[in-house]
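Protocol step 4 of 6: structure prediction from sequence.
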Amino acid sequence: MNEVQTDTTREQIHPRPDYGRVFLTFARNSLVRDMTFRSNFIIETISSLSWMFMNLGFYLLIFSYTNVIGVATGWTQYQFFVFFATVAIVNSLVQTFFMPNAQEFSEMIRTGNLDFALLKPIDTQFLISLQKVNWSGLGNTGFALLLLVFSLGKLYSEQAGFRIYPIQMILYPFYIVCGITILYSLMIALSATSVWLGRNQSLYNFWFYITNFSRYPMEIYGGPSGDARRWIGQSLKSFFSYCIPVLLAVNVPARLLAKPLDPNNLSLALYAVFGTVVSFSVSRMFFYRALRSYRSTGS
């Protein structure tokens, strides 16, 4: 009885935070801030969409000369646009919810604002990762969803035997979340190095260099059969699929819709779940290991 009373008293003194409500507060505050400077918000949204349109135009130009991306890859125009839309969805959501916070982490260390984050009765990684939302990034998400629906409609009408089943519609958002988690894990781990390096802009840029590999179907890294340089592509494919699984972040959900009958999908899907759990666990341990090395500005 005394133990129950003690636990109740402890919860009254240190109530468990409602993470959903806290995140909604962060999101609302960010929206109010963005609407305060509406012209800047509109310009950022238009700039992001312009980049998307330019990329789409570039791929349309490529497909005006060929029917597939690579001789042996099998990615036709609308299959590739499903892939391109998936890339845009994953990256736009990462940029909306996590990137602005990761960019400011080193500044929090430099100015000492990290001290206040550590004192709050809430998970520090949650607080640092989600305290700001870049709402203008959702413009790309909306555009990508429209492109995805359009491309699937084209595949349904033009490709014999192409079907979309309910299980695919369930697994697609699940693996989108897995892909976002993989990219976020890499981002937060690189940001955590700011504790030791102070400013790590060069390492943060490294995130962009690595994630560029996830923007293309993994088949292009196989290389043509018999080519002496094939081992280079195979090495990159293996490393970025199984060591740092950024290739799986986009390839798995895109293949579930664009290439549902590919025999490699099952093994890739299973490893993507494993890679997501390991990536997040390792990045979280690394993040808190970095925090243990942090020295307050007052110390």
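Step 5 (inspection) to follow. The chain has one domain: 19-292.
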